[in-house]
Amino acid sequence: MKRLLLVEPDETVRRELGAYLRSDGHEVLEIDKQRALELCQERVDAVFVWSTREAARAAAVLREMDGSPQPRILFYAGSERAPADESSAPAPPALVGETTAMRDLRATLRLLAGRPRTHVLVGGEAGSGKHTVARALHHATNPRHDFVHLTTTGLANLLERGLRSFEEGATLYLPSIEAVDRSTQRGLAGLLAAHDGFNAPPVRLVIGLMRSGQQISLGRLVQRAVHPELAARVPVLLDLLPLRKRRSDIPLLASHLLSSWSKGSGSSCPCLTSAALEQLADHAWPGNVRELANVLERASLSGRARIDVADLPAFEAGRAGVDYELPSSGIDISEFERAMLVQALALSRGNQTQAASLLGLTRDQIRYRMSKFKIPRSAGES
Predict the structure, then answer these.
(1) Cα-based distances in Å from 246 to 69, 289, 360
(2) Residue 66: Cβ within 10 Å count
(3) Tens digit of pLDDT for each residue in 100-113?
(4) Which of the 8 DSSP states describes residue 199?
(5) 8 Å CB contact between 212 and 242
(6) Which 8-state DSSP code applies to residue 129?
(7) Which among 26, 30, 29 is positioned nearest to 1, based on CA atoms?
(8) Are the beta carbons of 27 and 1 closer than 8 angstroms?
(9) What is the bridge-based pairing of β-strands 203-210 and 120-124?
(10) Cα end-to-end span (Å), the chain
């Protein structure tokens, strides 16, 4: 049997959690603001923390109890771990990139930071950064609020106990709305409506919605996956681009990831050779930013100052598949072929061999099409 210190300021929640933990065979010491100093003299095996805002106080209590600079094990019921003190607080999540899409995203989050009751849906492919966007919005709004990563069980508990335990405010992150049944979604909509209707601390819901590579509008995906009553309470839709559509951000992302890991380990930051960067930029990245992070982390384990092509995995040949759909009005296939040829020549500055590589053709096939469409040999040169 473990002796647990239960940290939760809400008396009703504390009583319910205490009863549950005791029924599971634990001895429970409950802590509130009045009894905190008394319990500093008690010996406990671990601390059970329901809310992130209580984690710092719990860690301080543990340090006073045994003089250790590090707290003993903390059990977190529904929220992500909060730092033991402000000096150890992590840096805000970085949304790295200078493409128009990333600059627009950061600008939107800055506006939303001043509207802590506005609920948001973030659509994106697996690994595209939905969780990072949720954390960045939370930090920009008020990092002292709770950040609650809702699991299926956590959502059920939330619907049962309500939002009364969030005394200062919270960000609720629901990563996969498509995994939540419609009845539960409707219950969540009712919970938000009841909370928003009173002068209560601001609680923001951030919903994650999985996208595939198909080009269907985010609005249509929301219609398919989200209960209308819940969708009506979420006015802001953020659509994250996959990494293959913002390849110019790859050098910045790679540098940021390598730098952050080196700071955490105290080691020097490796750099990427131009050949390695070229190979990274040429990959389709079906796993998006998460895949890039995994590749770079493995490569950095070599300990070398420079990461070269040999340190990277042998990516499968070929580029990403078709990432667009035929418009309902149709297209002129001949004009489409001509437009692709002109763009390839422009990107390659008129180099026909490079243009052929971009289109998956031979140089002779490029020349044939240039003649077919009466494109001058000087096209694309600068």
Answers:
(1) 44, 11, 21
(2) 12
(3) 999 999 999 999 99
(4) S
(5) no
(6) S
(7) 26
(8) yes
(9) parallel
(10) 76
Token pair for 259? 């730098």
Contacts of 183 (CB under 8 A, 6+ apart): none
pLDDT in tens, 120-167: 999 999 999 999 999 999 999 999 888 999 988 889 989 988 887 788
Nearest-angstrom CA–CA distance, 262 and 280: 20
Give CA–CA dist 308/275, Å, rounded: 7
pLDDT per residue over 233-277, tens digit each? 999 999 999 999 999 999 999 999 998 888 766 778 899 999 999
Residue ranges of alpha helices (H) inside 266-362 are 274-282, 288-300, 333-347, 352-359
pLDDT in tens, 288-345: 999 999 999 999 888 888 999 999 998 865 454 445 555 556 677 888 888 888 888 8
Edge-to-edge, what's the strand order for the sheet holding 74-76?
Answer: 27-31, 3-7, 46-49, 74-76
**How high is the pLDDT of residue 44?**
52
| DSSP code for 50 | S
> Residue for token digits 């109890």?
65
In 184-247, where do the E strands start and end?
Answer: 203-210, 236-239
For helices 333-347 and 363-372, the axis angle rounded to 10 degrees is: 120
Residue where the block lists tokens 């077919």? 372
At a CB cut-off of 8 Å and minimum separation 6, what does 59 contact? 47, 71, 74, 84, 85
Q: Count the alpha carbons within 13 Å of 288 in the hemisphere toward its beta carbon.
A: 18
Contact 90, 83 (CB under 8 A): yes
